[in-house]
């Protein structure tokens, strides 16, 4: 089990009482009374949630539980109706996405945001200034090729090699398979040298071989000190790499604990009872025959 790997901060979670809102020994992200409503619908009402530094935390829950909305709010891609949250001891409440990213908290999206008509390398470089206005970036890219941005290119190449995308650096992102796009999304997120990653369904639509590769990369990043929180529906994935699992249902945090305790938790069983597990999301639909999956060539921008 990942919690017993001897990774210091992740391992410290095993001593904690598994209950919703429990305090962690070394919390990096702390949320209090975070609320987001849409009309009359309460999408998120999380009283207290702490994410342990240096650990992999899975955020699970049935469809519509509020997981993505919570990610959106704390990463500055959506506004909250109330509540406060801090990162590394500093208030982060209401900060816009670019400022959140600059502070070291970077998120990826359910539908990969790689831009199909840019090359793999360009996709990497446009992540570098801090994930701001991607539409403005083609203009920004030109000066990137000169002067001080060489260092960014070096970092991009290093990351592409790490994720085995080096040979594809000059290909258009639209020609990558769905799984390769997921790898590119992860590599891009690392361009800003984040402290913590919020990954929204990083394995959705990815074939088993690439899932293993992604899991290996995420575990390795944790072992290097990165904090990871990810939304996932596949319980094998959750059990395989999580140090800790937080469970949401109907906007609330209903359970927390080490992965092996979660499936036996009554509140979790209640939350899932009668609810259907998610289908893989739109990107990376699997292609029969060669075990490799292809994207549809065009990315949906969010
Ligand atoms: N922009 C929006 N406008 C209206 N309702 C929304 C909006 N975004 C989310 N919701 C609603 O808020 C609730 C929580 O949605 P959210 O996408 O956060 O759930 P989730 O746990 O991520 O679900 P899934 O696992 O299916 O992605 C759902 O009822 C959803 O329909």
UniProtKB/TrEMBL annotation:
**One GO molecular-function annotation for this sequence?**
ATP binding
Signal sequence: where?
A: none
The answer to whether keyword Signal applies is: no
Matches recorded under InterPro entries: AAA+_ATPase, ABC_AA/LPS_Transport, ABC_transporter-like_ATP-bd, ABC_transporter-like_CS, BCA_ABC_TP_C, P-loop_NTPase
Q: Which Gene3D superfamilies match?
A: P-loop containing nucleotide triphosphate hydrolases
- PROSITE patterns according to UniProt: ABC_TRANSPORTER_1, ABC_TRANSPORTER_2
| SUPFAM superfamilies according to UniProt | P-loop containing nucleoside triphosphate hydrolases (SSF52540)
Q: Which Pfam families match?
A: ABC_tran, BCA_ABC_TP_C
* Highest taxon of the lineage: Bacteria
Q: Does the keyword Nucleotide-binding apply?
A: yes
The record's annotation in PANTHER family points to:
CONSERVED COMPONENT OF ABC TRANSPORTER FOR NATURAL AMINO ACIDS, CONSERVED COMPONENT OF ABC TRANSPORTER FOR NATURAL AMINO ACIDS-RELATED
Q: What is this protein called?
A: ABC transporter ATP-binding protein
Q: Which organism is it from?
A: Streptomyces xiangluensis
């Amino acid at each position: 089990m990942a919690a017993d790997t001897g990774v210091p901060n992740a391992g410290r979670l095993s001593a904690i009482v598994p209950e919703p809102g429990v305090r962690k020994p070394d919390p990096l992200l702390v949320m209090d009374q975070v609320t987001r409503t849409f009309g009359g619908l309460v999408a998120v009402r999380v009283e207290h949630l702490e994410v342990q530094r240096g650990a992999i935390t899975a955020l699970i829950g049935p469809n519509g539980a509020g997981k993505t909305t919570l990610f959106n709010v704390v990463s500055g891609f959506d506004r909250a109706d109330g509540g406060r949250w801090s990162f590394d001891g500093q208030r982060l409440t209401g900060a816009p996405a670019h400022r959140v990213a600059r502070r070291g908290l970077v998120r990826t999206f359910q539908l990969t945001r790689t831009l199909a008509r840019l090359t793999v390398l360009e996709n990497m470089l446009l992540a570098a200034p801090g994930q701001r206005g991607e539409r403005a970036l083609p203009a920004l890219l030109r000066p990137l090729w000169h002067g001080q941005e060489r260092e960014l290119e070096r970092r991009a190449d290093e990351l592409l090699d790490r994720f085995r995308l080096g040979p594809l650096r000059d290909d258009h992102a639209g020609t990558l398979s769905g799984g390769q796009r997921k790898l590119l999304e992860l590599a891009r997120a690392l361009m800003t040298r984040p402290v913590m990653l919020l990954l929204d369904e990083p394995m959705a639509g990815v074939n088993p071989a690439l899932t293993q590769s992604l899991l290996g990369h995420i575990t390795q990043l944790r072992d290097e000190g990165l904090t990871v929180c990810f939304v996932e529906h596949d319980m094998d994935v959750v059990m395989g790499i999580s140090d800790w699992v937080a469970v949401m249902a109907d906007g609330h945090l209903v359970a927390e604990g080490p992965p092996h305790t979660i499936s036996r938790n009554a509140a979790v069983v209640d939350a899932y009872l009668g609810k259907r597990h998610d289908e893989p999301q739109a990107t990376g639909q699997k292609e029969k025959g060669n075990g490799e999956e292809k994207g549809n060539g065009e990315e949906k921008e969010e």
